[in-house]
Amino acid sequence: MSGIPAGGTWFDTINRSFVDVPINGANDNGISTTEFLEAAESLTTLFDLLGSAAFAPVKNDLTGNIKKVRERQQAAPGESETLQSLVLGELKTKKHVAAEGLVWLVRGLDFTAQSLRHNINNQSKELSDSFRDAYGRTLKPHHSFIIKPIFSAAMSATPYRNTFYAKLGSDSEKVKAALEREVAALEERVAILKAFQDRKEAKW
């Protein structure tokens, strides 16, 4: 638990929380690109806590898609303030590298959110059950027969529930509150992006 402040949780050590990712309700629920990508990067380090090399492909998948979105933001900063405007701006150029990257990033974050939500709501369940359940409902339907075994191996490599929660902090009530807050914020932003991606103008 190195790096966690006394009486704090792992969530106190990350660079950006999804709680701090602005949503512009006055502008089509626009989600701020810079903060969202920072929060997504921070969340990928959660897979390091799971302590298995089997999770490297899951983390690499997320970071690779973050990179695609960020490269578009850097190429056209003026129209990339929100993720929605970034996607619509790129699609006007007849390209969809970042738009597709964001689709996969949202799927990966949805998988993460659903895994953690399942585990929060089912306190007798081990992480492997929660991750397997969420994988079946999020990423698995989109994965090829080559990728599925790689991700399935990761689902089976999760540590015991108690081991994982202990890595998040020594005060279980604080950990529970911080995890609930982060997951709720992630769920809200994933839901907004999924609704946006379902719209005709966000497709290619």
Could you write a compact summary of the structure shown?
With 204 residues, the chain is mainly alpha-helical. It has nine helices and two strands; from the N terminus they run E-E-H-H-H-H-H-H-H-H-H.
Key terms:
single chain; 204 residues; mainly alpha; Glycolipid transfer protein, GLTP; two-stranded antiparallel ribbon; 9 helices; 2 strands; 2% strand; transport
Please provide a written account of the structure:
The protein has nine helices and two strands. With 204 residues, the chain is mainly α. It has a single domain, classed as Orthogonal Bundle (Glycolipid transfer protein, GLTP), CATH 1.10.3520.10. Strands 1-2 form a two-stranded antiparallel sheet. 35% of the residues are buried. The mean pLDDT is 95. Residues 169-196 form a coiled coil. Keywords: Coiled coil, Transport.
Which fold name corresponds to the CATH topology?
Answer: Glycolipid transfer protein, GLTP
Percent helix, as a range, is 55-70%
Estimated radius of gyration: 17 Å
CATH architecture: Orthogonal Bundle
Question: Could you tell me the number of beta strands?
Answer: 2
Largest sheet: 2 strands, antiparallel
* Main β-sheet, spatial strand arrangement: 1-2
What would you give as the CATH superfamily? Glycolipid transfer protein
Order of helices and strands: EEHHHHHHHHH
Q: Which regions contain 5 or more consecutive residues with pLDDT less than 50? A: none
The number of distinct structural domains comes to 1
Strand content: under 5%
Mean pLDDT: 95
Assign the CATH class. Answer: Mainly Alpha
User: Structural class, please?
Assistant: mainly alpha
Question: Counting H and I runs of at least 4 residues, what is the number of helices?
Answer: 9
Q: Give the terminus-to-terminus CA distance.
A: 45 Å
Which overall shape is indicated by the principal axes computed on the Cα atoms? globular
